[in-house]
Amino acid sequence: MADRRTADPRNTSRAGSRAPRGRSGPGRPSTKKTVDPAVSGEQAAVAPKRRTPRLTSRAIVLALVIAVLVVSYASSAKAYLQQRHEISTTQAEIAQRQADIATLQDQVDRWRDPAYVAIQARERFGYVMPGQTAYVALDAKGHKIASTAELGKPNAFPGATPTAWWTTVWGSVKLAGNPPTNTASTGPAMKITP
């Protein structure tokens, strides 16, 4: 049986070698080394001849395509970021309005309670239930005293600084443990006069 490589009339090369496959042709880099006959064998292997890179039409088209893609993706990214900002702002507004709705619903629920309505009528308009007596607190000038949410300082001892109860208790404990001595020269009274 004959070898296929040698039997093929189109294959004019030797049986063991093949023609190089791959890209070849005009405008393609050559794999052959050019050797200057004046340069010796060692120097030719060390210093191959360099080609200067040139700008081809394919490189220009590739650069243009990349530039168009960058511009289109940049505008898409900008629109995406703007929409994300609008979504977060809208979500914050929704949360605020839901909180306002919850507050208003709480007020509606309170006004449905008859006890709350009675308290508001008493505080705002001075209404009282039948059989009750309304009292109004007035200040020294005869004006109505407005209610406040905070307690004022108590003024139980005008002009004097009040002492804490525990200082009075501790003073009596000290007095009981160390009673005062009687400095009077006279003894107890023998006779009580009315």
Note down, in words, how this protein is organized:
This protein is mostly helical and 194 residues long. Helices cover 46% and strands 0% of the residues. It contains five helices and no strands. The radius of gyration is 55 Å and the shape is elongated.
- Percent helix among the residues? 40-55%
Largest sheet: none
Average residue pLDDT: 78
Structural class: mainly alpha
Query: How many distinct helices?
Result: 5
Give the overall shape, derived from the CA principal axes: elongated
Helix and strand topology:
Layout: H1 4-7, H2 41-46, H3 57-111, H4 114-125, H5 165-177
How do you describe this structure in short?
This protein has 194 residues and is mainly alpha-helical. Helices cover 46% and strands 0% of the residues.
What are the defining features of this structure?
5 helices; single chain; 194 residues; mainly alpha
